[in-house]
Predict the structure.
Amino acid sequence: MDITQTFYDSMATQYDKLFADWAATTREQAQLLEDIFQKYGFDKSASVLDCACGIGTQAIGLAALGYDVTASDFSEKELQEAARRAAEQSVTLSLAHADFRALEKVFSDTFDIVICMDNALPHMLSAGDLKMAVQSIMGRIADGGMFVASIRDYDAMLQEKPPYSPPYIHKTEQGQRVCFQVWDWNGDHYRFTQYIIDDEETLQISKFDCEYRAVKREELTKLLHDAGCSEVRWLFPEESGFYQPIVIAKK
């Protein structure tokens, strides 16, 4: 089991703590994504694959809006958590265990829209793995379909290589929760430790280790064009309302 799978398996039951209100976030992000889909000519008849679904943050929200959503991830623990949360919300979601570098091993059909949100692509720690992921994802998109993904603004981050992320401080009924990451850079890679501090009736501290490769927008744009995209556009937070830059690619 590699570091990324261990990270998400270990965090599965605590991932929602990264949000002040996870359920509200699912609704907000689903609406944001639907606005993008509609702008590019898609409605609720579109089939959607969330190829890095995690605990269902985007997939559950989109399914609740009425989209036909298939959700995949390579973390079995996160898929179990997504299934539990979908059931709690009476949302129909098709779930599958899949590595987005090899989606063709699990899915034979294509989808109108594939999404890959929350900085999942930079877990590909080599240019070769990222290329494999992009080609696999594009192979599951129908002609005329679209790909929507988000990554951190690594073009800016690589100039400063910050040692940590700004903390999120969430008030809770019994106190507060503080979440932040500490980053250790090595070239364009950084190992990070995710801290979750529950300062409530008793103090509880959790930490999880993982790694990213800082992917510049130019690299991802070229890979998408090389994989058959006719149009690639970036939306920044001030335009989209999302907390990370979003790339939209039409096939």
The chain has a mean pLDDT of 97. The longest strand covers residues 175-186. Residues 196 and 206 are 5 Å apart (CA to CA). The domain at 3-153+215-250 is CATH 3.40.50.150 (Rossmann fold).
